[in-house]
Amino acid sequence: MNTIDNENLLWQVTQFIWHEAAILDAKEYDAWLDLWQPEGLYIIPIEDVDDYAAVLNLCYDDDKMRRDRIKRFQDGFSISSAPPAVTVRTLSRFVIDALDGNTVVVSCAEHLVEDKFGRQRIWAANVRYTLTSTDTGFRLQEKVVRLLNSDGVLNSFSYLF
Amino acid sequence: MNQLIDVKNIALEPDQLVHNDKIATPMYTSSELFEQEQEKIFHKTWVWVAHASEIPDKGSFKLSKVGREPVIVVRDRKNNIHVMVNRCRHRAATVCEVHKGKTSSFQCPYHGWGYGLDGSLRALPNPEQYGDDFDKSQHGMLKLRVESYQGMIFATFNEGIESLEDFLGAAKKWIDLFMKQGGGYPVKTLGEHQFSVPMNWKVQLENTTDAYHFPIVHKSFLQSLDEEAEKTFTFLDGEGFVEDLGNGHSVMVMIPELVDLEEDLDRKIPERFAELAQALRGEGYPEDQVRRIVRAVGGSGFNLNLFPNVACSMAFFRVLTPVAVDKTDIRHIAIGMEGGPDIANRVRLRLHEHFQGPMGFGSPDDAEVWERIQRGVEGGAELPILVNRGIEKEVPGEAGPRGHVSDETGMRAAYAMWKRMMQE
């Protein structure tokens, strides 16, 4: 348990989220896995619901699925990930939604541009982070990425949001 | 078989484009041909538009496509299903842009013409300017003929076409088998993944009946399974087969022991479903029902490919929409048990997410190779695209020629139908 210091909180979470964004653009996935609490959930929903487990999502990853997904990216047998699209992303418009003990909930906007075969695609999402403060810094407790048009026609993704 | 095709001098004649063992490159690249296909195939045959569970109640509707044409699929107050072109009869604006929902009527946003759930024109503002002989009954929305089989709703612009059941023919038996995934409950849809791929629609049509690619393209998916499941999905050396079912339909049996999900229920429950089985027992389900539900959750061991736009693919519906000669939209619709145990439907959802959709462990690799095809046909236009695998070894099946599970028998079936329709 590590109670969060209210002071500079916005700056602290911003630093963490930008760090995560840099890791994901660099595809340093082992480092990304280390950012997670083991019980954490990485969710890219289709619908706007309370209980994501009860509906179909684009991804609903617990620890095992996250590790399997990263292994798939890294092993070189997945043609869509060998090589994957290159990405550049920014996250901004941070708002602290809640603060309770060692847990902080932050919402923000994400813009991502991917490039593959010389063709670029642009994606935008509202992202909600639930971060747990630990002795070694923040850890991801939950990350929910709500893509614009998540219930419409998308393209396949060879990277993470 | 390796003869080149003189693409510069062939007209877009079906018999020059489609041979029994190969097709010509313009099949994937010709915009002119694509336009002809819309007219001669998608406008003329039965096209899948929805599953009945997607419009469960009176007034439920969803938007769909017949070829490129936007349609509304709706259930009226008497439970009749209507499919109509999403276009106001006045000045052509779409009357609905909500993907799915419930309503009592459709109203055009431009001048307020209002239509009933059956597409009939009910009311319009200031009708007096149209004069006394304006006949509302002649200005209903353009309706399609609609028939369904086992909850699968099809529509057609062709009033003269055979019945849906005749069109499905030998495929009906396989649809019946597929619906055993209800595990004793009605099958219902549980949501869908949608993604667009820069490829011709026929590349998708072929893929559902292509087992040959599975161990290559989906190696990373296979590697993410436990040993027992990986063995189940390693089916190229098994007893599976592909059979031509007539009218362009075909079935590809990959896992023969999972053709009839209600057979031999005493077989050992796979390790990956042990936890679910235990949870169902904990909820008080008797052992025979536990086994039936668990078997259903794992999905069927075959892909049924229905010409031209839908497949019952192992554990989901796979729907294609042709958008342009080099663009196709794909929908992977998850299915589950209506009124069945929630824990079992949740396992189905997680299994669907595992393989399917934009972030699945399977679909993105499919999408990659499909796009590679569309990129590849930019070169070597005279080279044939081979669909000859196993052609010498086919044997008569129950309904038509049958080949090894990895053979291209199903593609040949689809292309024979394509040729027949394009020549009519």
From TrEMBL, chain A:
<comment type="pathway">
    <text>Aromatic compound metabolism.</text>
</comment>
<dbReference type="InterPro" id="IPR000391">
    <property type="entry name" value="Rng_hydr_dOase-bsu"/>
</dbReference>
<dbReference type="Pfam" id="PF00866">
    <property type="entry name" value="Ring_hydroxyl_B"/>
</dbReference>
<comment type="similarity">
    <text>Belongs to the bacterial ring-hydroxylating dioxygenase beta subunit family.</text>
</comment>
<dbReference type="InterPro" id="IPR032710">
    <property type="entry name" value="NTF2-like_dom_sf"/>
</dbReference>
<dbReference type="GO" id="GO:0051213">
    <property type="term" value="F:dioxygenase activity"/>
</dbReference>
<protein>
    <submittedName>
        <fullName>Aromatic-ring-hydroxylating dioxygenase subunit beta</fullName>
    </submittedName>
</protein>
<keyword id="KW-0058">Aromatic hydrocarbons catabolism</keyword>
<keyword id="KW-0560">Oxidoreductase</keyword>
<keyword id="KW-0223">Dioxygenase</keyword>
From TrEMBL, chain B:
<keyword id="KW-0560">Oxidoreductase</keyword>
<dbReference type="Pfam" id="PF00355">
    <property type="entry name" value="Rieske"/>
</dbReference>
<feature type="domain" description="Rieske">
    <location>
        <begin position="46"/>
        <end position="155"/>
    </location>
</feature>
<keyword id="KW-0001">2Fe-2S</keyword>
<dbReference type="InterPro" id="IPR001663">
    <property type="entry name" value="Rng_hydr_dOase-A"/>
</dbReference>
<keyword id="KW-0479">Metal-binding</keyword>
<keyword id="KW-0408">Iron</keyword>
<protein>
    <submittedName>
        <fullName>Rieske 2Fe-2S domain-containing protein</fullName>
    </submittedName>
</protein>
<dbReference type="Pfam" id="PF00848">
    <property type="entry name" value="Ring_hydroxyl_A"/>
</dbReference>
<keyword id="KW-0411">Iron-sulfur</keyword>
<dbReference type="InterPro" id="IPR015879">
    <property type="entry name" value="Ring_hydroxy_dOase_asu_C_dom"/>
</dbReference>
<dbReference type="InterPro" id="IPR017941">
    <property type="entry name" value="Rieske_2Fe-2S"/>
</dbReference>
<dbReference type="InterPro" id="IPR036922">
    <property type="entry name" value="Rieske_2Fe-2S_sf"/>
</dbReference>
